[in-house]
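Replying to the earlier thread about multi-chain prediction with a worked example.

Input:
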Amino acid sequence: MSRRSNEAPRVRNAQRRHLLAGSAAALAAAGLGAFHKTAIAQAASAAAKPLPPYTAWKDPAAMIVHTSNTLETKRSAFGTSIITPVEQLYVRNNLPAPDAAIVADRDAWEMMIEGVKNPRKLTVRELRGMGLETVAMVLQCSGNGRGYFPSKPSGTPWQVGAAGCVMWSGVPVKAVVEALGGLADGAVFMTSTGGEKLPEGVDPKSVMVERSVPLKAMGDALLAWELNGAPIPLAHGGPLRIIVPGYSGVNNVKYIKRLAFTAQESDAAIQKTGYRLSAPGQKGDPGQPSIWEMGVKSWINSPAPEGGTVPAGMVQIKGVAFGGAHAVKAVEVSVDGGKTWKEARFVGPDLGRYAWRQFALAVQLPPGTHTIASRAIDAQGNRQPEERVENAGGYNNASWRDHALQVTVA
Amino acid sequence: MSRRSNEAPRVRNAQRRHLLAGSAAALAAAGLGAFHKTAIAQAASAAAKPLPPYTAWKDPAAMIVHTSNTLETKRSAFGTSIITPVEQLYVRNNLPAPDAAIVADRDAWEMMIEGVKNPRKLTVRELRGMGLETVAMVLQCSGNGRGYFPSKPSGTPWQVGAAGCVMWSGVPVKAVVEALGGLADGAVFMTSTGGEKLPEGVDPKSVMVERSVPLKAMGDALLAWELNGAPIPLAHGGPLRIIVPGYSGVNNVKYIKRLAFTAQESDAAIQKTGYRLSAPGQKGDPGQPSIWEMGVKSWINSPAPEGGTVPAGMVQIKGVAFGGAHAVKAVEVSVDGGKTWKEARFVGPDLGRYAWRQFALAVQLPPGTHTIASRAIDAQGNRQPEERVENAGGYNNASWRDHALQVTVA
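Result:
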């Protein structure tokens, strides 16, 4: 049951009402493509799927349930407090979550550390004694924005809601490595293996969740047991998850049971051929770039995040902006489809280079329809791109044009 | 239902087990007074009270229910992610919360602004268009720490858990005042009135929640509609609450229905005679200081926050420190009851001057019993005091000695 049990039915109905009221014809005329019309048709025809049991504690009014492994945050649910509460945070599992028994005695969870001078098993209880760090970080699925590809690549058609900004707390990986005598020779990658139970009768390499990232990622990585001030829920990788700030979601391996410093990338399919940047029509290949560091991106969450009408007068255009691997430096907003831009201000505290910033710009919008967009620039001068980079997997879509909103002022 | 529905029974049992295992004799020998022995006796004899319905969404394992108006966070529940999640946040109401109908249509909530050149009513919908700011803030009840007064002043015997650090988002009060033509002449105080339904047959002044703070408090004050990224729950003052950063909890009036800039303090009892710093045995009087700005304070949350035993070896001593009205500058930890001190490090991002900082110090504790304590200093050089300041209401207890913990290392 969500916390707003006496509010949830009303909010859910309001959401459905807003979606139905969006003008499909207007959106089509604006060239926003097939996806939006499909979304509206779906909302009109089918009841929303219920939350899967292991996520029953989330706010149903805030979530779009694609499947039991893929839940998306509604664009209209994002607040302005920078940190995304866990009841709204997206879920993307590559395998079904393990049994809840693994969070019954969190301190007893054990993992193996290899590729160090003194390899050994460590429990969460032992890890807690070895250090502490807390980091605010954008967690984003590499497929966030895939829904805007007209080519409709296979995979969940996320729009903006496979992302959140959350606080992780745990022990720095480098503290653990130091305590175990330092790295063994030949370490080039940091390789993490998830503790999911694998389906029977299938080649383990084809399904296991094992990801490798460059060794430099160890610098800010954590073995985390806490998310937003409470033990990590099973749905988000509890009792232990490796957190690799600035790196795309899949690299933050859930229920980590093995951390190894390796000479090669993992040969698990999810690393070898999965999550690769391939040209359209190509298959994934170890020679292609792996989905690692995230890039600069922003989008607007208010007003009218599902399209629609706002009253005339002063409007606060609000959204989020981040740099991925680098701090975000600035963000601009356009209310005329990208012809002119104005710098928005950041709102609230700076939670560090891996977090997103909340931005706002007050505008007076005259009656009519406006295409509003945001584009960010990071501290290294990298600019959020106008167009998406076409790729077979529909990954890494940061296109400001794709993320623009149509707003009608009455 | 809390989010950890399959974990909650086990955690609740563990908590009760820990409390029963605390050695009452050891605590008495350490001179920690009557309160702890009472708490242990209560835990042993009575079942924990259930969460009142308007807080049913909170984590029962994290809360101590004193009454339906007073819920405290367990010391052991505080995480290290700086921001306190709402499922753990304390509740202290002076009157029963209004009917949940007021959060059914949040944007329609209306309040009156007076003491400005153009006084008028404003709805939450209108306020949203007028500006945006987000602030991280320590919310603390003035009675936090009252449980350590041996004199047992009347009022809830909070220990540390009538406090949290949370993100509020809303419109700056000064933006609203400016939009309404600026202050009228003669404004000396900012006075806020809560929208609770008052009990019949009682003088309204004797029960209404109306608080006045100095005008300077307007500078960083917000009319907030959002808490930690979601609409403020009814239990925490939704749909609208005035947030006065750095000021004690009672001044952050819930369900605010009137904001006035006044020449005098309110003559409601809660302002006139309530929440005053009175000498022991004295009644509250308008001539005494009102409970306004909070002062520098810190406490340790781990290890062994309910007393108890920890294994020998490296221990991370973890806690929170804040300056109240000013930023906290540093915090020290002692493991020998205050004879010697070592500076702890701050962990995680700095959320601004009104937030608390997470701190940690790694120590090797030899076998035996140790009194561990923390003491903070703020940016203006104000030091957390060793002793409490005796007062009739048991307010403002920041004594580092009172907040010390007994830890036994096996």
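Helices of chain B lie at 8-21, 24-29, 34-45, 124-128, 173-179, 204-207, 269-272.

Feel free to reuse this layout for your own posts.
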